[in-house]
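User:
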Amino acid sequence: MTWRRTLLALTLLAWTTSAAKAEPVIVDLSKNFVAITAGFTGTEVLLFGTTNGYGEVVVVVEGPKEVLAVRRKEKVAGIWINGRQVDFVNAPAFYKILSTSSLDEWLPLSVREANQIGVEYLDLQPRDEIAPAEAAEYRAALIRNKQRIGHYGQVEARMKIVDGRLFRSNVYFPANVPVGKYQVRTYLVDKGKIVSKRTMPLTINKIGIEADVFRVAHEHSALYGIAAIVIAVLAGLGGNALFRKG
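Assistant: Predicted structure:
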């Protein structure tokens, strides 16, 4: 909307004339908390900032670390079943990148690897020791699975540049976004080197009845399972009764 763009422009201009003189890059989010309610269908968070007019900007949005499992499908007697499972520890539940231009044009591979910038450079380590070739197979499958459900970005998203120093972009979080503590890391890169880094927190959490159900399901899984079975049985009995009346 026009008034929002105007407000954003005024804010960034204020930064440019004051704090930007001391900081190579300044960045902020339109909100630091995303609430997931019953009708949540996904949301966007506006990321905006300014530089001193030089270098390129790359932003890494990383979700909470989790243990992520990958199972291999195996065909036994003509039937596909779940085979071996490999667990990856401390893997980000969500991971996306934004940049002012294509990373391949200005960010050296050594810098990307050292800072885990790009899904191909994530340090995804299996919990148990397996052969390197097999670990690479499972690792690639994990990345494909996360990309398919929208939790990992396939390519970096582009950030809009205004007047050579103001940048902004919308970060999209899908309806199935993992909850927890996120980190938004912003790098200013000049001549192939990181000259400034800023990190901001972002929290995504369930509220209301969604939060209560989520908490019970995780903290009292046995009770939640029994309740689900009871509800399913009652629903079935109710449906049968209505069918007989009809």
